[in-house]
Design goal:
Elements (H helix, E strand, L loop, with lengths): L9 E4 L3 H12 L5 E4 L4 H10 L7 E4 L2 E3 L2 H11 L10 H27 L6 H18 L16 H10 L11 H15 L2 H6 L2
Parallel strand pairs: 1-2
Antiparallel strand pairs: 1-3, 3-4
């Protein structure tokens, strides 16, 4: 595997939620990129530890730069490509949004990761606890989605890319939210899933 010499970013990805997030961010920012899915490149699985010591996906390559943490990748994309900003410009608003991003990762992504990444080996009791906590948390915040078109914002942002990739996988996680309590959240999901960029990110 060679680092690309063109100005077009390359990503190595799989069908997991983290790769989905990266594809969605790239598409929302209208950044041209090339992708190799590891299901189509068996040799890459052997090369992965050489470029990412954590042996995780996705991997983002831009010329000599190699990144393998989504938060760092997203921050780089925001600074490198100024079109279609997914973070606020104002320093205070940006800091508040980054804190919201951190809370999503801490409160929801951690639980979703447990259910999605380790679903075949996870202890049943641990899975039930994670599923219950995530369900209750989503039910609690569901009314917030009634006030804005996007998550606590009038414009599409990084948090929407992160959240939608998890909400799309509620069924595989064994989560079914009560409609009468979560109607605004379901409406948000419908808006997100119907976006052309979201549909493309699934391909």
């Amino acid at each position: 595997m060679l680092t690309p010499t063109s100005n077009t970013p390359l990503i190595y990805a799989d069908d997991g939620y983290l790769s989905h997030q990266l594809r969605l961010v790239l598409l929302e920012k209208k950044i041209e990129f090339s992708e190799t899915n590891i299901r189509d490149d068996e040799d890459f699985a052997e090369d992965l530890p050489d470029i990412n010591p954590y042996n995780t996906l996705p991997v983002f390559i831009h010329r000599e730069l190699i990144l393998y943490n989504n938060r760092i990748i997203f921050e780089y994309l925001e600074e490198r490509y100024h079109q279609n900003k997914l973070l606020p410009e104002n320093p205070i608003e940006k800091a508040q949004y980054r804190q919201l991003w951190w809370r999503i990762e801490k409160d929801w992504i951690k639980l979703a990761d447990t259910l999605l990444t380790h679903k075949d080996t996870l202890d049943v009791n641990q899975a039930n606890i994670a599923r219950k906590q995530l369900t209750e948390s989503l039910v609690t915040i569901a009314p917030l989605f009634a006030h804005k078109a996007f998550f606590l914002s009038d414009t599409m942002g990084v948090c929407d890319c992160i959240l939608s990739s998890i909400l799309y996988r509620l069924k595989p996680m064994g989560i079914e939210l009560p409609l009468h309590l979560c109607r605004p959240l379901y409406q948000y999901m419908e808006r997100m899933f119907n976006r052309p960029t979201f549909k493309t990110s699934l391909k």
